[in-house]
Specification:
40% of the residues lie in helices and 11% in strands. It is of the alpha/beta class. The chain has a six-stranded parallel β-sheet, sandwiched between helices. Helix 27 links the parallel strand 17 and strand 18 (720-725). Helix 3 (58-80) crosses helix 17 (417-428). The N and C termini lie far apart (90 Å).
C-alpha cells in the first residue's frame, strides 16, 4: 500500500464520508466515491506550464495543415457538382490530430493507425501534398468505377494505401483493441518482435455510443495494452445534433475509460483559456454546462456568452475576445496541446490510454458550418466561403482562381519548404502512411498424412466438427507452419472437442497462469501460458471476430502470414457479427471461419435461438467468402487443403473460407476415387442408385437422403442417385460467371429424372442453383424458426426426415409421368 503522506487529512476525509453514509445512506457514499474515482476537473491534463517543447517547425506545419484543409474542402466541393457528397466538418475539426501524428508519432511499418472514416478527405489531401496522389485522382473522389478514390478507408478498393476499414462505426475501436492484443500475442509467441509497435485509433465522440466501441475496454486494461491509444475527437456533435445535449460527453467518457482501467488524458482548452481557468468557479461551471449549451456558445456572440457563462465573474475581456476564446480556442486546434497529449499518452505505462480532445466541428469553415447541427450533411462551400477560408488560412490563392465554377486545388510545389519538410518528417518515421504493403511469403505445403487420415474414413461415428478439430490439431504439429495456426473460440471450447489442445497448444494469457487449475490432475487440464497458441476469448463473438481479423490480415500488417480458424456456434456468427465479416472482406483477411453445431435440427433440445438454418445464405452474399457445407470428414480435409493452397500458396488470394460442421456423430466413409474436383467445385455423385430421380443433399442432410434412397429402393423399387453438394453458393457463382456450360449442368449431364434438393437450411439455400436445373425441381428445407425437440421429431416437423424425403421423391416422379 502507498505511504499516507497526510494521515490527518485522510482521517478528516474518512470522517466526512462516514457522515455522508450515516446521513444519506451507503448508496450516496458509494456514488461519491465512484465520482471521485472516475472523473477529474474539466481542464487539461497537461497544463501549459508543463507542456514539453515542440519538436517541429510550427510555422511550416501550420502551412502544411492549411493546404490540407483547403484541398480536402475543395475535393468534396468539386465532387458535389455530381451529387457525390462527402464530409467537410469531421476532418476540419480533427486536422491537427492527424497532422501532429503524421509529423511526429506515426511510424510506418511499425504502427497501425485506424483513421476515422469520415475524415478520409483530409488523409487524401495530406497524401496529395506528399506527392502520393495527383489532382486527377482527387477529382475522382467517390468515383471508383472510373478508377477514383473510395469514399472511406477501404483496403480492398485501395490495397496499397488503406490498411483498415473504419467507417462502419464501432468496428474500428473494437478491432484496434484486438490488433494491439494480437501484436503482443505475436511477440510473446516469438513470431515477431512487436515491442515498439503502437496502435492508434481515431474516433468520434458520437461513435462511442456504438456498443462495439466500448466492448473490449476492460480486456485492453486487463492485459496491460500500453501499446494502444484511443484519440477521441470530442467536438460534442454526432451526425445530426449534440452527442449529449443535456449532459457532458467528455466527463461521461472519462468515467467509462477510467473505470475500465485506462489512463485518461484530457486536452480540452486552448492557451487563450489559461487566464480564465484560474477561476475555480468558472472551472466548476464548465463542468456543469450541458454540451448542447456549449455548442450554442461556440456559435454565439460575446455578449451572449458573457451573460450566460460568465455572469457574476470579473472577466477583463471584450465581447469579441470572449467570442473568439469560447467559440474556438480548443486544445484540438493547437498543435502544442495535441503534441503534449500524445507525448503524455506515449509515456504512460501499464495500461492503454485514451485522449479526449475537444474541438469545434467544422472548424475554419466559416460561421455557417462551425458548430452547426447540420454541418455533417454540408457537402460544399460557396465561393464566398472559400474566399473567407483562404484568408483565414493565409493561402496564396488569387481571387481570379476563385471566379470559376470549381475551387482549385492548391499545392506549394514538390520542391517547396512545405513539401520537403513533410517528406523529411515521414522519412524519419519510416515512410509514407497510410500504406498497406504485402510481400509475398507463401507457406510450405503441409504433409499429406493428416488429410489421408480423414480420407480413410471411420466406422466409429465421428461428427464433422470433431473431424475438423482433429485435422487442425495435426496440422498444428507441422514443423514449418504449425506455430502459425491461431485457434480462436469465444467459449465452450469443450463443446467443439478442443480441450485436447489445452495441454499442448495452451491458452494465451500475457500473465501466464497464476493459479492451480481445478482440473489440473486431468489429462486434458485447462492450461494458460504467455506463449499460448489458443485465443480463448470468453463469451464475445464480436471480440473473437476482431481477433480473427487481426490474425487474418497479419500477412499485410506484419508481413507474417498466420492461419486463424475461429470456431463458433454457427447461429452466433454471421447473424450476430456479419458487419465484422464484411469488414474482414474489405480488409482482405484470410483464414477459416468454422460454423459449428450447424443446421436447424442438429442441436437437440436447444430451440429457436440456437438453431441456424440461414448462415449459409448470409455467407453467400459476401463476395470474398467461399462457403462450404461438407457432409463427410474427407470433404472437410479436401476443402481445408485447398483453402491453404489458395490463401497461403505461391499465388495467394484475398479470400476466406466458411465451413459449416455438425455435432451429429456419424460413420465416416472412405473418400471415393475421383471426387476431389466435385468437392471443391460444389457437387459430385456420392451414391449411384439407378438415376430415376436425383437427391441433392448437403451437410448432415446427406444421411437422411441415403436413408430415403434405401426406403425408395426397398419399399417402392425406385432407384435414385444421391449427390453430395458441398457448396450451393459456389455452384451458383460458377453458373453466373461461366462462359461455357456451368459446372452444375456438367455434373448432371447424361442423367434424367426430377431433382430433389434437401438440406438442414432454409430452402433459399439450395434454391440458389434452381435456375440452372433444366428439369422438375423440388427443394426441402427448414424454413421458419427453430424449436426444441429430438432431432427426429424436429426433422419430421420441417419435412426433411427420410420419410418426408421419400414422399417428395415419389410425388416428383409421379408428376413427371403425368
Amino acid at each position: 500500500m502507498e505511504e499516507d503522506l497526510d494521515p490527518q487529512e485522510t482521517a478528516e476525509w474518512l470522517e466526512s464520508l462516514e457522515a455522508v453514509r450515516r446521513a444519506a445512506g451507503p448508496e450516496r457514499a458509494d456514488y461519491l466515491l465512484k465520482r471521485l474515482a472516475t472523473t477529474t476537473r474539466y481542464i487539461n491534463t497537461v497544463p501549459t506550464s508543463e507542456e514539453p517543447g515542440y519538436p517541429g517547425d510550427l510555422e511550416l506545419e501550420e502551412r502544411i495543415a492549411a493546404y490540407d484543409r483547403w484541398n480536402a474542402a475543395a475535393m468534396i466541393t468539386r465532387g458535389s457538382r455530381l451529387g457525390l457528397g462527402g464530409h467537410l466538418a469531421t476532418y476540419a475539426s480533427a486536422a491537427w490530430l492527424y497532422e501532429v501524428g503524421f509529423n511526429h508519432f506515426f511510424h510506418a511499418g511499425r504502427d497501425q493507425v485506424y483513421f476515422q472514416g469520415h475524415a478520409s478527405p483530409g488523409i487524401y489531401a495530406r497524401a496529395f501534398l506528399e506527392g502520393r496522389l495527383s489532382e486527377p485522382q482527387l477529382d475522382l473522389f467517390r468515383r471508383e468505377p472510373e478508377g477514383g478514390l473510395p469514399s472511406y478507408p477501404h483496403p480492398r478498393s485501395m490495397p496499397d494505401f488503406w490498411q483498415f476499414p473504419t467507417v462502419s462505426m464501432g468496428i474500428g475501436p473494437l478491432n484496434a483493441v484486438y490488433q494491439a492484443r494480437f501484436n503482443r500475442y505475436l511477440h510473446n509467441r516469438g513470431i515477431k518482435d512487436t515491442s515498439q509497435s503502437h496502435v492508434w485509433a481515431f474516433l468520434g465522440d458520437g461513435e462511442m455510443d456504438e456498443p462495439e466501441s466500448t466492448a473490449a475496454l476492460t480486456l485492453a486494461a486487463r492485459e496491460g495494452l500500453d501499446n494502444l491509444t484511443f484519440v477521441i475527437n470530442c467536438n460534442l456533435q454526432r451526425l445530426d445534433g449534440p452527442v449529449r445535449g443535456n449532459t457532458r460527453i467528455v466527463q461521461e467518457l472519462e468515467s467509462v475509460f477510467r473505470g475500465s482501467g485506462w489512463h485518461v488524458v484530457k486536452a480540452l482548452w486552448g492557451r487563450e483559456w489559461d487566464e480564465l481557468l484560474g477561476s475555480d468557479e468558472l472551472v466548476a461551471r464548465l463542468g456543469e454546462v450541458p454540451d448542447g449549451q456549449f455548442q450554442t456558445f461556440a456559435a454565439s456572440t460575446g455578449s451572449y456568452i458573457r451573460e450566460r457563462l460568465f455572469q457574476g465573474l470579473d472577466v477583463p475581456y471584450s465581447d469579441e475576445h470572449l467570442r473568439r476564446v469560447v467559440g474556438g480556442s480548443r486544445a484540438g486546434h493547437e498543435p502544442r496541446k495535441v503534441y503534449a497529449a500524445y507525448r503524455k499518452a506515449m509515456d504512460n505505462r501499464g495500461a492503454p490510454t485514451v485522449i479526449l480532445v475537444q474541438t469545434v466541428k467544422g472548424w475554419t469553415l466559416g460561421a455557417g458550418i462551425e458548430a452547426r447541427n447540420a454541418n455533417h450533411q454540408m457537402k460544399k462551400l460557396t465561393k464566398d466561403e472559400f474566399r473567407a477560408l483562404r484568408d483565414r488560412l493565409g493561402l496564396p490563392v488569387p481571387d481570379k482562381a476563385l471566379d470559376g465554377d470549381l475551387p482549385p486545388y492548391v499545392h506549394p510545389g514538390p520542391d517547396s519548404p512545405e513539401a520537403r519538410y513533410a517528406a523529411e518528417r515521414r522519412r524519419e518515421l519510416g515512410g509514407p502512411l497510410p500504406r498497406r504493403s504485402v510481400s509475398p511469403r507463401p507457406l510450405p505445403t503441409p504433409d499429406e498424412a493428416p488429410f489421408r487420415a480423414l480420407e480413410k474414413g471411420s466406422k466409429q461415428p465421428v461428427a464433422t466438427t470433431m473431424a475438423f478439430v482433429r485435422l487442425a490439431k495435426d496440422l498444428m504439429k507441422e514443423p514449418e507452419t504449425g506455430r502459425r495456426w491461431v485457434p480462436i473460440v469465444p467459449d465452450e471450447a469443450r463443446t467443439f472437442g478442443m480441450e485436447s489442445l489445452f495441454p499442448t497448444a495452451k491458452i494465451y494469457s500475457p500473465l501466464g497462469q497464476r493459479y492451480e487449475s481445478v482440473d489440473r490432475d486431468l489429462l486434458l487440464a485447462y492450461k494458460e501460458a504467455t506463449d499460448g497458441q489458443i485465443l480463448l476469448e470468453g463469451i464475445t463473438e464480436a471480440g473473437s471476430m476482431a481477433s480473427f481479423t487481426a490474425a487474418a490480415s497479419s500477412y499485410a500488417t506484419h508481413g507474417e502470414p498466420m492461419i486463424p480458424f475461429y470456431i463458433f456456434y454457427s447461429m452466433f456468427g454471421w447473424q450476430r457479427t456479419g458487419d465484422q465479416m464484411w469488414a474482414l472482406a474489405d480488409q482482405l483477411g484470410r483464414g477459416f471461419l468454422i460454423g459449428a453445431t450447424a443446421g436447424r435440427t442438429t442441436m437437440t433440445g436447444e430451440g429457436l435461438q440456437h438453431a441456424d438454418g440461414h448462415s449459409q445464405l448470409l455467407a453467400s452474399a459476401n463476395p470474398a467468402c467461399l462457403a462450404y457445407d461438407p457432409a463427410f470428414a474427407y470433404e472437410v480435409g479436401t476443402i481445408v487443403r485447398e483453402g491453404l493452397r489458395r490463401m497461403y500458396g505461391p499465388a495467394a488470394e484475398d479470400v476466406f473460407y466458411y465451413l459449416t460442421v455438425y455435432n451429429e456423430p456419424m460413420p465416416q466413409p472412405a473418400m471415393p476415387e475421383g471426387v476431389e474436383e466435385g468437392i471443391l467445385r460444389g457437387i459430385y455423385r456420392f451414391s449411384d442408385g439407378g438415376g430415376q430421380a436425383h437427391l441433392l443433399a448437403s451437410g448432415t442432410a446427406i444421411h437422411w437422403a441415403l436413408e430415403a434412397q434405401r426406403l425408395l429402393r426397398e419399399e417402392y423399387g425406385l432407384g435414385v442417385d444421391v449427390w453430395s453438394v458441398t457448396s450451393w453458393s459456389e455452384l451458383r457463382r460458377d453458373a453466373m460467371t461461366a462462359t461455357g456450360v456451368p459446372y452444375i449442368r456438367q455434373a448432371l449431364a447424361g442423367t434424367s429424372g426430377p431433382v430433389i434438393a434437401v438440406s438442414d437450411w432454409m430452402r433459399a439455400v439450395p434454391d440458389q442453383i434452381s435456375p440452372w436445373i433444366d428439369r422438375p425441381w423440388t427443394s426441402l428445407g427448414t424454413d421458419g424458426f427453430g424449436l426444441s425437440g429430438t432431432r427426429e421429431a424436429v426433422r419430421r416437423h420441417f419435412g426433411v426426415d427420410p420419410r418426408s424425403i421419400t414422399e417428395a421423391v415419389l410425388k416428383a416422379v409421379e408428376t413427371g409421368r403425368d
